Amino acid sequence: MGIRECGDASIVGGTAVAVFILNKEKIKLGKALAYVMLTAILDNLFFVIGAPLILFFAQGEIFPSTRLMEMKLGRSLEIIFFTSYGLYAFYSLMMASALFWKPRVFKWILLKIASIKWLRRWRQQAREYGDQIIEASKELRGKRWNYWVPIVLATIFIWSSRYFMLNALMSAYIPLEIGEHLLIFARQVIMWIAMMVSPTPGSSGTAEFFFNQFFSEFLGGYTFVTSILWRLLSYYPYLLLGAFFLPRWVKQVFFSAKKSS
Q1: Is-contact 217 184, C-beta < 8 A?
Q2: SS3 annotation, 60-127
Q3: What are 150-179's pLDDT values in tens digits?
Q4: Is the Cα torsion angle 89, 95, 101, 103 positive or negative in sign?
Q5: What span, in angstroms and rounded, lies between the C-alpha atoms of 247 and 55?
Q6: Half-sphere exposure (Cβ direction) of 84: Cα atoms closer than 13 Å
Q7: Model pTM score
Q8: How many helices (H) and strands (E) does the chain have?
Q9: Contact 191, 211 (CB under 8 A)
Q10: How far apart are CA 225 and CA 176, in angstroms?
């Protein structure tokens, strides 16, 4: 889960950090990048593939449709979702193609983009990143089905467990039928994609806003307290664990290395 949380909701933000940590743990750069990118791409595909299936089977019930909701947002929530999904799907497809299909073409495209006059200062970084993608692709080439199946199942299990936590939390306040459980789970996937465009770190504020829009019709007066508990259980534990373990890891890796030298 550690690597997954580094790259949560995006390949970009946490990838460099996760690769750096794995590399410091004596894992080769190409292999470290392959592991992190593979994890991030599979996480992304959970949403990219899952969202259309949910929209198809939900038959129009997936987006909140209360009168107050329509007065405040109109159809902007759906616009936010489809915009975020389009950008997310495009980015995921691009990175999956770079890693599994044509890494050298991806490097060539990066270099062409970096050849633009006002982007030339990043040409060297683009070359290095392209080389890293090629190395990562070599690490995953030729893997058999018994390598992929456990990873895919683990990805589905991890995200499903994370979402069913809210189902369990809501069940503590209100009785829910099976159909409502499925709808709540489906709305979390849609809400998560909508939050991808959040301008705030960790979607702070944005997550609470969307939570209220998606689940207030179920929770009523319990919405606020449930949203606080949901964030406390689904987001802040990773920050606390990081604040506890990261300084110790930095001390062990860097300061012990200096002493030994």
Answers
A1: no
A2: CCCCCCCHHHHHHHCCHHHHHHHHHHHHHHHHHHHHHHHHHCCHHHHHHHHHHHHCCHHHHHHHHHHH
A3: 999 999 998 898 889 999 999 988 898 888
A4: positive
A5: 43
A6: 22
A7: 0.73
A8: 13, 0
A9: yes
A10: 18
